[in-house]
Design goal:
Layout (H helix, E strand, L loop, with lengths): L9 E4 L2 H11 L3 E5 L3 E8 L5 E8 L8 E5 L5 H9 L4 E4 L10 E7 L5 E7 L9 H4 L5
Parallel strand pairs: 1-4, 5-8
Antiparallel strand pairs: 2-3, 3-4, 6-7, 7-8
Length: about 140
Amino acid sequence: MQRLSLDRAVLEVKDLEAMSRFCRDVLALRLLVHTETGATFELGTDARGHTQVVMLLASDTSTPPRRMTLEVTDEEFPATCQHLRNHGATLFESEGSSAPGCALRVLHCQMPEGHHLQVISIDPRRCAPSHPSLSTPRQA
């Protein structure tokens, strides 16, 4: 049985049009459905091919501000970074890492109604090299 949970992917917003414009124009998300009371945007697909979405619902009260994280590939990050920086996003990068696969790039973007989006990616070019003694079992 498949389970679908929209709890964290649903935002109640006071200004549906402003948040819809942000999702469409700034985040470049594909609009799937738009009505007077809501909008659904495609975030992408997961490893199993399931479509991931964010739903916006018009409401008299908005969801308390959330910090949402979107992970993109190292290849996607430069274009995403440039596009969001053109809209005021700030880039934070780790200076390197003592462990392989941990040199993160984080792009922080203020969203309407107090929400925060961080786009993260691992930059493998700035990760520490693996120690052969840690990755190869010793021979007795």
